[in-house]
Amino acid sequence: MARVHQLLLLHINSLSAVNGKVPVIRSQCLACGDESDLSRLGLARAAAIFSLHTIWCNPAKHRICASCSSKPLDALKIPTRVTALSLAQLRSQAEILAEVRGLNFQTLDDGELRILTGLTHESIVEVAQESSLPFDQVCQVFVFLRLGLGQRPLSVLFGKTQQTISEQLRKAIIKVSDAMAQKYLRRPRDEILRNKIPFIEPLFPNLLALVDGTYHRCEKSQNFLEQLKSYNYHKGYNLLKTMALFTVDAKWWDLLGLFYSDADHNDEMLLEYIIQNNVGDITSVYKLGTDILMVDRFFSP
């Protein structure tokens, strides 16, 4: 379990510096000492600097300028005075990196796998068989999806180049999506009704599914109109929206969308649009005038 905690700590420390734009912070460049155009030093880059220069850099304290950031790591002239940790701390950090790098998922128990991937060993084996992928690649996909790690920190954790991680993730996500979506999503209507939860029938005999809108964070668009339409004033973020259908056999049917998340795209309007335009082939499972969809209080009666 200690390895998992170290991995999560690595994830938390690296998110702000590796993914997306980072805030400019006034200090001194780690390499050249310049005080202009500085940004945070990500943990993945700090680990790479450590491996090349045998100097541990603290991502929370050290900065690097735009000029040095574009240079290859072996071309940086990093003075030894920046060592921020004692020799004992340096060795401890090196041991952590060595232990986490090249993580072997086969050695983790169910509890550790669930923390990292959200799945048990048995479930991962099933996904691997259905998608014809190695066990470790399936784990890497779900670590990527669950923790939101970028490719650079993943390359450090799994001991592979960023290019290799990028290519493996691209192919694996396509295979997992194709194999699992066909098996578990968009089940036919007769199968849903046949596996209907028993206690629902006497209470809501015509109930087919529960419907609700859900949000997904997105980057701010450079297009002003798209930026305006994707900004949700209630949540205070740029979001996109999907409509989720959870059927009476206690399984997800699908997420329908994507839609904007501004006030013009409320749940009621989106559901009406989905039914009228047969988005996601919803009319193959939902029969208007016969079936009931359960919604929340924001829908008009």
Explained architecture:
There is one protein chain. This protein has 301 residues and is of the alpha+beta class. The protein has three domains: 78 residues, no CATH class; 80 residues, Arc Repressor Mutant, subunit A; 106 residues, no CATH class. Helices cover 45% and strands 14% of the residues. Strands 3, 4, 5, 6 and 7 form a five-stranded mixed sheet that branches. The protein has a two-stranded antiparallel sheet with strand order 1-2. The N and C termini lie far apart (50 Å).
Features:
disordered N terminus; about 300 residues; alpha+beta; 3 domains; 13 helices; two-stranded antiparallel ribbon; Arc Repressor Mutant, subunit A; 5-stranded mixed β-sheet
The fraction of residues assigned to DSSP E strands is: 5-15%
Shape: globular
What's the end-to-end separation, in Å?
50 Å
Uncertain spans: 1-26, 81-86
Mean pLDDT, as a whole number? 78
Order of helices and strands: HEHEHHHHHHHHHEHEEEHE
Largest sheet geometry: 5 strands, mixed
Our count of helices gives 13
Work out the helicity level: 40-55%
Into how many domains do the coordinates divide?
A: 3
Explain the layout of strands and helices:
Blueprint (H helix, E strand, L loop, with lengths): L1 H17 L19 E3 L2 H11 L9 E3 H4 L17 H14 L9 H8 L3 H11 L3 H13 L3 H8 L3 H23 L4 H6 L5 H4 L3 E11 L6 H7 E2 L4 E11 L3 E9 L7 H10 L15 E3 L7
Parallel strand pairs: 3-7
Antiparallel strand pairs: 1-2, 3-5, 4-5, 5-6
Helix pairs in contact: 2-8, 6-7, 6-9, 7-9, 8-9
